[in-house]
Amino acid sequence: MAFGSFNSGSNSAPMAEINVIPLVDIMLVLLVIFIITAPLLTHAVKIDLPKAESSANVLKVDNVQLAIDGAGTVFWNGEVLDKNQLAERMRATSAMPVHPEIHIHADRNARYETIAEVMSEAARNGLTKIGFVTDPNVDRAR
After folding, report:
1. Whose CA is closest to 132, among 67, 70, 72?
2. Nearest-CA neighbor of 63 among 74, 77, 82, 75?
3. Which of 55, 59, 57 is nearest to 98 (CA)?
């Protein structure tokens, strides 16, 4: 007797059809699970959050143009300063509520020692926003 038929013939060819009934059963079970859990995922706890409005507290931060020439002269926004005046200006600047940025324009022939002294004086007074300004149009072949 052949499997799945009532014929007593000896037709023993393999079965070429896919049995989709277990696949349909699994899909229906998954569909029921998703139908039950979908409303639970959209449920949110309703709370009454406080409303707050504020304006941005924007303080315009100025910058200090600090130039050092080849002779070691220090210029604070174009004004010549000696070491004592520079320290006094740095202390006054550090007392401001918002510390300005210090832009250092150093001459090509300026000594590193002078630049390091200016930077250490700024750091000593808490002025940490220091940047070096360079000229990109300078001929590099010199």
Report:
1. 67
2. 77
3. 59
Query: pLDDT tens for residues 27-48?
Result: 999 999 999 888 777 767 777 7
> What is the Cα–Cα distance from 117 to 121, expressed in whole angstroms?
6
Cα-Cα-Cα-Cα dihedral sign, residues 86, 112, 142, 73: positive
Candidates 115, 83, 85; CA nearest to 102 is: 115
Closest C-alpha to 64, from 120, 102, 104: 102
Record the pTM.
Answer: 0.53
Residue 93 near residue 61 (C-beta atoms within 8 A) = no
Q: Check residue 72 and give left, alpha or beta (phi > 0: left; psi -120 to 50: alpha).
A: left
What's the gap between Cα 84 and its chain centre? 40
